[in-house]
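Data availability (excerpt). The following record was deposited with the supplementary files.
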Amino acid sequence: MLNRRNWLRQSVLATAGAALLAPAGLEALNDRQGKLYERLADPGSDEAYWEMVKSQFTFAPGLTYFNNGSLGACPDHVTQATNQFRKTLDGFPSKYMWGGWDDEKEAVREKVAKTFAVSPETIALIHNTTEGMNLIASSMELSEGDEVLLSSHEHTSARVPWKYWQERKGVVLKDVELPLLPESREEIVDLFRRAITPKTKVISIVHVTNTNGMRLPVREISDMAHEQGVLVAVDGAQSMGMFQINLDELGCDFFTSSSHKWLFSPKGMGIFYARAEAQKLLKPLIVCRGWEDTSIRRLENYNTRNLPELLGLGAALDFRALIGQERIENRVFELKHYFRELLSKDDRFVLKTPAADGLSAGIQTVEVRDKQVLEVKSSLTKDYGIDCRPMTSHDINGVRISLAIYCTKADVDRLVRALSS
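Predicted structure:
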């Protein structure tokens, strides 16, 4: 567990220091950080602790939010820090946009790298998963007849880039049909193994599906693919931050995610990982001055960008570090098990998400028998103020429930009562 002094010293605000914020703003935010440390850093294993975590987020009155899989919320501390960064930028725009925050940007990169146990030289700070998938798909030097394998549960933003950049060249996109409720991780690996041909060049897969929260065995697929000379790209939009990830140990070549979901950063920030050996394959989507840079930073050379959001990502990682990555993962699985146990007591519910922890985590999709999902979604919203995502594809007909750290067991109880009505 971090001690108070070390945590405050390592925070993005301390890294920035007085050169980043006006003294009054810096003092106010440092005071808030100190109070956050006192509240969040102590071990918490009961609901009172998680109620306190929830209190760090400000939702609209009457809203119970189970839609983190679509878009996460920022903790109040992150919102305040980002707004202070924005105020600082607008106080001296040219200074901070072009060079004044270079050290602070690198501090955020280092925080991302530390969180996911990799070198900062493998991390680019981009805008979202969609950009990352376009970056990968546009960079691949593929020829007519080459194949890219996709799973049948890929998000549109992970599928369309391959269609746009490669299919028109005659590259073949092949779907690997996934079972809705696989019995094991090896079952999924075997489906990809059997789909590979001598023409297969890339496997592009989602880590956790946005449809029913199925968790794909990225490490096993990567090991199998690399034995046959096939690259692996991963859409991690629904996994990064949901549970602990060591990006190097995943074994994939590329991994991209939006940080505004499970990392609770400001909107419009994303993370891109490329293992060192694969970086030479990548071409920037945007080029300007500095395009000759050979480091991974060449992929984020936008000239102007929303730097307060980037620094806000650092503040979000500070917030998460207070709670602890392991504790966050344990809480996600605790909520998953609690939710599934409640549903198991009523045969009106059909879970459309695999039960095993190796095959699912914080996204659970449930069908209410004899009811159309849009009807269920409408009732939850209008009658109970509960927001979640209706899923109609893949014969699911279920509501997708995202179980994030600002969800409490009392919230889950309320949700199940509403679904039962």
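Summary of structural features: The first helix runs from residue 4 to 10.
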